[in-house]
Prior knowledge:
Elements: H1 6-38, E1 46-50, E2 53-57, H2 59-74, H3 79-93, H4 120-123, H5 126-137, H6 148-156, H7 168-178, E3 186-187, H8 200-211, E4 218-220, E5 234-239, H9 249-262, H10 264-267, E6 269-274, E7 277-280, E8 289-290, E9 298-303
Antiparallel strand pairs: 1-2, 1-3, 4-5, 5-9, 6-7, 6-9, 7-8
Keywords: Membrane, Transmembrane, Transmembrane helix
Organism: Streptomyces himastatinicus ATCC 53653
Protein name: Putative secreted protein
Amino acid sequence: MVGVPRSVFSRRPRLLRAAVACAVLLGLVAYVAIHVLSGGSGPPRCVARAEGGDVLLDPEQAVNAATIEAVAAARGLPERAVTIALATALQESGLRNITHGDRDSLGLFQQRPSQGWGTARQIQDPVYAAGKFYDHLVKVPGYSRLPLTVAAQRVQYSGFPQAYAKHETEAVVLTATLTGRSAAAFTCPGPPDDGKTGDPGRVRAALEEEFGADARSRLSAAGQGGGKRAGSSREVLVPVADASARGGRTERGWELAYWAVAHSDELRIERVSYGKHVWSARNSGDGWRTSDKSSGSDIRLGLTR
């Protein structure tokens, strides 16, 4: 009988333990992936859907993403500018308006007051921060044809320029959705039914601040709704221009509608109607539903009160 070296036996328990550990780790990774993608029991999520897949955001991230897109739309910038800005903000802040960063860096893009980006208060205004990013981006020759990492780095001067690339796929999906290319493809949880009221003046001011005068809105005295909440909403009517710098009337309508859904919690918007599609906070888990009634040529925003 040929003897077996002791080292073989001593290695077997270690190999077995390593195999078990790997199996546990893989199972944990799979659980986390499924948990995140399905929403699990975590906080409410916004979902953006496009050809490239789904992107999940929390409401804070969704508001900031929609603002970044709106500021680009107001300036007539192409989709590529939006994608570069979103990927940059995902890397720099996770699409959050941070109050601390590397040295004196602040806000969505970790812009620095000491480097001439503005005051701390200005930089922490997402509309201002996005505008300053685009101010610098459009000065980069041929930015829309450059690799995303190169274009972003020409603006940011990051110590880790290649890090922007890992967010490009997410940014492309968000851009395709938020610019209105994909119909009925963006939803958020909406405001809770906590009795807080929506302010039409605040909604109208936010629209004009982010989209410019082209998003000038008006009020409707008539409320819409059903059941016990009938008549409980006032409406802001947002006209849809015949065309925008990027696309036609339909895309512009969805762009404005998605902005309203993204800002629904912040601005207490409980219903958004566009064409024959309706999003409501009460049924936000179902996304957009079709309706027999058309909103006409306007987008109708129903506010809580």
